């Protein structure tokens, strides 16, 4: 699976050597078990054939990789995994925190701040936005004029937790330098050609 993107600014990119991988899930799925594979593919809308094919290829890749799997609550397991993982460490999550309560997400941020007190931790998250969450759940605060745009909202967030003697970014934020308009694409529809 190849995802294409455009890099603007920042240091030169180098693919790091990955020493180990640890996966955490509340209920583990075995990508080699036919029943588990069929269940995962069934979670994809039937008209999304390209996404189903990508998911099948992704499960093939996961099945070949050497991943230490842990089953349980990530909020309870992440502190131990981070403590046992030598530097450098990168924590990745995708479509995960979106399903957590606001209290659990806040507790996760506290876990990450505490774990990064004496070391640098990189975090990459791909999560739908709060606007999308409100639109999808029919929240009364999702204003009609924003619902259409909220359908396609979300994104990739890369966070670097720095040591106390570094340059902390947390709670200060970054000023964006490039304005990007979100396309008005309903969930499940093909993106405009310009976004492909």
Explain what the structure shows:
With 196 residues, the protein is of the alpha/beta class. The protein has helices at residues 34-42, 49-64, 74-84, 102-115, 130-136, 144-151; strands at residues 22-25, 68-71, 89-94, 121-128, 154-161. The strands form 2 sheets. Strands 3-4-5 form a 3-stranded mixed β-sheet. A two-stranded parallel sheet has the order 1-2. α3 (74-84) runs parallel beside α4 and α5 packs across α6. The longest helix is centred in the first third of the chain and has 16 residues, at 49-64.
Tell me the number of helical segments per DSSP (H or I, 4 or more residues long).
6
Largest sheet strand order: 3-4-5
Main β-sheet: number of strands, strand sense, barrel status? 3 strands, mixed
How do the SSEs run, as a string of H and E? Answer: EHHEHEHEHHE
Structural class: alpha/beta
Rg over alpha carbons: 19 Å
Topology (SSEs and partners):
Blueprint: E1 22-25, H1 34-42, H2 49-64, E2 68-71, H3 74-84, E3 89-94, H4 102-115, E4 121-128, H5 130-136, H6 144-151, E5 154-161
Parallel strand pairs: 1-2, 3-4
Antiparallel strand pairs: 4-5
Helix pairs in contact: 3-4, 5-6
Question: Summarize this, please?
Answer:
This protein is of the alpha/beta class and 196 residues long. It has helices at 34-42, 49-64, 74-84, 102-115, 130-136, 144-151, and strands spanning 22-25, 68-71, 89-94, 121-128, 154-161.
């Amino acid at each position: 699976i190849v995802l294409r993107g455009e890099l603007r600014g920042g240091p030169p990119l180098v693919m790091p050597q990955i020493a180990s991988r640890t996966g955490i899930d509340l209920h583990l799925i075995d990508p080699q078990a036919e029943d588990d594979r069929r269940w995962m593919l069934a979670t994809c809308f039937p008209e999304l054939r390209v996404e189903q094919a990508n998911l099948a290829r992704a499960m093939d890749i996961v099945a070949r990789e050497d991943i230490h799997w842990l089953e349980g609550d990530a909020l309870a397991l992440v502190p131990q995994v981070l403590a046992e993982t030598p530097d450098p460490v990168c924590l990745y999550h995708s479509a995960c925190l979106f399903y957590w309560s606001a209290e659990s997400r806040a507790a996760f941020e506290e876990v990450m701040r505490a774990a990064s007190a004496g070391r640098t931790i990189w975090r990459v998250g791909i999560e739908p936005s709060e606007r999308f969450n409100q639109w999808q759940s029919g929240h009364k605060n999702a204003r009609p004029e924003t619902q259409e745009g909220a359908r396609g909202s979300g994104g990739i967030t890369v966070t670097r937790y720095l040591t106390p003697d570094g340059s902390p970014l947390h709670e200060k934020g970054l000023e964006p330098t490039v304005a990007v308009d979100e396309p008005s694409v309903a969930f499940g529809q093909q993106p405009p050609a310009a976004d492909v």
